[in-house]
Amino acid sequence: MSKNKTNIVVEPNKQELFITREFDAPRELVFKAHTDAKLYVQWLGPHGYEMILEEFEPVSGGKYRYLHKDKEGNAYAFRGTFHTMTEELMIQTFEFEGMPESGHVALDTMKLEKLPNNRTRITIHSVYQSVADRDGMVQSGMESGVVEGYERLDDLLKKM
């Protein structure tokens, strides 16, 4: 269990949510963990899920598609486009392919802030197309997936 808490703010009747998390690692390593495919698959998502990257171009204008597979073999696909990918700012779209119809795309903006003592704070602002889309994502277990993924990232950063 990490001493760093993942803070997720979900206000009623809004199309957005905010995630804030600090890491005991320099910004360069936190950025690398988000952009190096070999590292990315080791931490993104909840415990017990296998991560399969089908496409991963973490550059401005690139795109991604990945699957999370549970122990029963069920696969959940996600995709999006990277709009801005710098060590200070990462902007991307995010879409869960399991929706009954397409078009439920969120826009995620993540700022990576250098902190004293080689630490990093990330702040994510996710904007959904509707309150229902945002609420559906939250109700799907997104919060626990984010928390568990960042716990896994903590473990990975300690080894880097």
What would your notes on this structure say?
The structure is a single chain. With 160 residues, this protein is of the alpha+beta class. Helices cover 28% and strands 40% of the residues. It contains three helices and eight strands, in the order ββααββββββα. The protein has an eight-stranded antiparallel β-sheet. Helix 1 packs across helix 2. The longest helix is centred in the C-terminal third of the chain and has 29 residues, at 131-159. The radius of gyration is 15 Å and the shape is globular. The mean pLDDT is 94.
Strand content: 35-45%
Biggest β-sheet, characterized? 8 strands, antiparallel
Distance between the termini: 18 Å
Shape: globular
How many DSSP-defined strands? 8
Sheet with most strands: strand arrangement? 1-2-8-7-6-5-4-3
The whole-angstrom Rg is: 15 Å
N-to-C SSE string, H for helix and E for strand: EEHHEEEEEEH
Low-pLDDT sequence parts:
none
**How many helices in DSSP terms?**
3
Broad structural category: alpha+beta
Mean pLDDT: 94
Q: Helical amount among residues, as a percent range?
A: 25-40%
